[in-house]
Amino acid sequence: MNKRNAVETADLSNCVLIDTKELQKVTSCGRDAAIKLGTAACARVQLGKRVLWNVAKIRAYLDQISG
Q1: CA Rg, the chain, in Å?
Q2: Per residue in 24-54, pLDDT tens?
């Protein structure tokens, strides 16, 4: 399974961390908007050169601003 298919078929409700492409897919946002959203939610996790996003923080932030 290549990375593109993994994003499409992943059950994101069980994921703790997702990459930027997955964040874009989940939020239906472009790259810049997804990064701004993740940064505003304080959900950025840096592992070496890799940047991942904390799904729980993203959801909590979205619930807070949409409330």
Answers
A1: 12
A2: 999 999 999 999 999 999 999 999 999 999 9
